[in-house]
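Worked example 3. Consider a protein that binds phosphoenolpyruvate.
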Amino acid sequence: MARKFFVGGNWKCNGTTEEVKKIVATLNDGQVPSADIVEVVVSPPYIFLPVVQSLLKPDFHVAAQNCWVKKGGAFTGEVSAEMLVNLGIPWVILGHSERRALLNESNEFVGDKVAYALSQGLKVIACVGETLEQRESGSTLEVVAAQTKAIADRVTSWENIVVAYEPVWAIGTGKVASPAQAQEVHNELRKWLHANVSPDVASTTRIIYGGSVSGANCKELAGNPDVDGFLVGGASLKPEFIDIIKAAEVEKKA
Ligand code: PEP
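Given these inputs, the predicted complex is written out as structure tokens:
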């Protein structure tokens, strides 16, 4: 079954009201493939979600960059999955490496968040990826498998999950994974899903790549058979995000 190309833009902790309106205007004016070819989801900071959602053309959707692990209540500073649903926010990014590293989010905690967000009706971009040290010690596949297992152990359906493979050493560094490195991990993740979840989940789940994706390198990466799109940080704030969306039309290598 064909997996629709998916392009997410993670705006991280950036922007003013004026700046986000400008980014949205650029997105709305961009000549990009239609919604049956590519799914585009942008993720502004919480505070800008309503304004971005109200201005964005209906083909494009928004994602929060995180949500709380369980029902809201006495958790100062958190935003619950229920609140996102209440605002009509369809997607949430969970397990981003910046949160795993800086805020010590464990695999189990991320798995719990994914399960809770799904249970409330959100769709999830679930991030996995190894550090440079883990890659150099040869444990990349073990690390991403453990991160994926913590999710698999807690969810009953993968229908609303997009997996983002984001090698930590490639995020925000300008050091993009080579197309072969990306394809290798995506293919191994798909094999892991086949063996540990189901052949159907393996063939239908989108596995997108993140880590210094740009207008210049997106086409080569998109040509890989197991790269189903991108999660883009820095370049999603710039007009080149339009070129990255257009990579949806690149023909896959056999
Ligand atoms: C990200 O934050 O998810 C990311 C991939 O960032 P960048 O594209 O800037 O490396």
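Take a moment to read the result before moving on. The mean pLDDT is 97. The domain at 5-249 is CATH 3.20.20.70 (TIM Barrel).
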